[in-house]
Amino acid sequence: MEINREHRVENLANKSIDSRALFALEAVEMGIWDIDLTDHSYWCNERCRQLCGMSSEDVWSYKQLLKSLHPTDRLRLNTRIQEALTNPAQKRFDVEFRMSSENDQTESWFYGSGQVFFDTNGNACRLTGTLQKKTESCLDQQTAVQRQVEVEQQKLVAILDVSHEFIGLAGVDLTIQYLNPEALHMLGWDNWQGKKMLDCVYIDDLPVAQKALAEIWAEGHSSLEIRFVNTRNKRPFWLHWNIAVVRDSSSDAIIGLATVSTNINERKKNELALRESEERFRAVADDSPAFVFIASPTIEIEFFNKTFLHYVGLSLHEIKAATWKQYTHPEDIQRIQVIYSESVRDKKPFTLEVRQRRALDGEYRWILWKGIPRFGCNGKLLGFMGSGIDIHEHQLTAETLKFNESRFRTLIEEAPVATCLFVGRDMIIEVANEIMIGYWGKDESVIGKPLAEAVPELIGQPFLDILDEVYTTGLTYEAKATEVQLEVNGTLGTYFFDFTYKPLRNDAGEVYAIMDMAIDATEEVLAKQALKASEERYRRLTADLELQVQQRTRQLQEFNEDLKRSNENLQRFAYVASHDLQEPLRKVQQFGSLLKNRYAANLGDGSEYIDRMQLAAERMSKLIDDLLVFSRISTHREERTVVSLPDLLQLVINDLELKILETNAQIFVGALPTVQGDRTQLGQLFQNLLSNALKFHQPERPVKIEIKASTLLFTELPPGVKPIRVSRAYQCIEVIDNGIGFDEKYLDRIFQVFQRLHGKEEFAGTGIGLAICEKVATNHGGAITASSQPGQGATFRVYLPMQ
């Protein structure tokens, strides 16, 4: 609507504008404008129209004014006025701006000022201000400043244009005012005109963006990770969105928002890949039969897989709440710390064998851990990771093996003959006793060297080839009186040895070493050679003597055959005679009993003689029975069967039940094995041993007998025990009593036939029982021995070879 001058003046007068002030302002060619915010009516004086390039007929409006402003200044002016309208504290404003003429399109600089008036309710009701064109001098000065500003702006724009960051500006209404090329590229836009800030945001993250923008006016800045969207490929991308308010330098009023943000899409992808990788790692680790761990630089546990947690019976939370020292054996803690420190220092993997306690049973078990220290790009230690397995049984086996190897080494070192061990095809001297080293004429420096290097004079002799053949075939090689050249004390000499090369095999059955045992036969060979020479000299003189020797040898063989037949006849005679003697003895006993029973009244003192006669007959019968048993054991061999010693011993105890009750004896039987043997003979062995223990007891002491068994290796046998058959191991059965005992100086006598240490009046018996025990033990390839002290009881030990 067109407003004429009269109406404007009248309107101005009605609004109480001082006419003198109005004419004064017009006199200095200053434009005046006024806006009634209650009815949205506008007014400006003629000078204001001229300055804005408007004719008298043109309708002036605020929008028309903004339209004629330079685009760069438009936002700044509008923002400043909006702040004045909404904030009574900033109701006055001053601003410089450029305005274009519609006629010639020239730009001129103007200075504008204004004030907002508020009603009693605090609402903006009126906006009044002035407009003045700047003078040439001011323009020249401002143009120079503007040029400098434009140069700096061009530099800044150039920097922004080549930046790889997302850079942009927006007004307070969130309309985008600038985006650098990189931002346009990320968004897939050709230009930013007419777009809002929220147009950049991925739809799923709009609530996050709206919340941040709502809070930024009070906070002044915000930083968050959010997804924007590329409109070309419809794909979201991650941005580290940094937003800050932009303020007018003169008024400190907020005029917009700025952002300099980093595209973190690749980092997010890497984080996602890392997270997925960690999830896969944890899944694989949890399914792994091995233990898996991740620890911090201070060895605090961050992760254990389910396998280990199940193994120790703890949750990950419980392990983290404790320290690794609490479930590690105290003796291993310092060693662990040293190994970890060395691993970090050398940046190398580590291996640990440690004992760690399980919560399930409180047992310390050996675990083998292998791991590596982890370092960041800057070389900083990030922690440790690795895996482990339970090696408890293996460790125990290794310790047993180590013990056995030590014992084997000791056996070689203390062997009474020259003994050594060669390991591997190169025949490395693993161990050699002093006798063998002495034979070689060397010192202990040969240990750890190949035989060919330690004893170089063997090169060219057959021994190295023989050793290689034994290592290849696994067959033992034995030789007697073999000649060898050895350098002893710097002198090469000829020696003769009896030796054996014995291959040793590992669990896989493969030869891994050869044991060499040698006996110096030099003196014997030389003596034989001397004897041979002597025999050669006296051959003719000894021809008749050799004939006589042959004759005597035949006679001796015949005599031996006769003696063998005689012994066999004697054994048969003893057996038959024993049977034949039993019958008259039984007659003597029977007739003695008849005489005593029928004629007791007439016998008088004769009854005592009959008793003595019957007692002697009883002893004679017992002696014959024992002789029969001894003869049967010596001449008769039953088929060997599997014999359960517990069952057999129970039968013997049942047979002796009456004697056990009479002596009030206690018999303790431990775990006994099952053996291969003659059941009858073994029964006689235990019958005699238990009978002796019951017989030779101390009257004032309760009888206690203990029977137990153990297993001994051949090397563990006592020095005096020499079994008939050599075996790797033996069952040792012990019969221990608390009886009267005996002096060990009579040890050789007690196992002989008819040998007694006590009189018949003191202890009954025939003196054959222990001889039978020894015969049974030797028949089974074993041995028997005893140990005792008078008054301290006796221990009999039977050694039977294991199959």
UniProtKB/TrEMBL annotation:
Q: Where does the record place the PAS domain?
A: 24-88, 277-347
What's a Gene Ontology MF term here?
A: phosphorelay sensor kinase activity
Its recorded reaction(s) are: ATP + protein L-histidine = ADP + protein N-phospho-L-histidine
**SUPFAM superfamilies from the UniProt entry:** ATPase domain of HSP90 chaperone/DNA topoisomerase II/histidine kinase (SSF55874), Homodimeric domain of signal transducing histidine kinase (SSF47384), PYP-like sensor domain (PAS domain) (SSF55785)
Gene3D superfamilies noted in UniProt: 1.10.287.130, Histidine kinase-like ATPase, C-terminal domain (3.30.565.10), PAS domain (3.30.450.20)
| Keywords, alphabetical | Coiled coil, Kinase, Phosphoprotein, Transferase
Q: Name any one Pfam family assigned in the record.
A: PAS_9
Q: Start and end of every Histidine kinase domain?
A: 576-803
Q: Locate the PAC domain: which residues? A: 222-276, 350-403, 475-533
Tell me which EC number(s) this protein carries. Answer: 2.7.13.3
Instruction: From the UniProt record, list the coiled-coil ranges.
Output: 531-569
Q: Report what the protein is called.
A: histidine kinase
Q: Which organism is it from?
A: Arundinibacter roseus
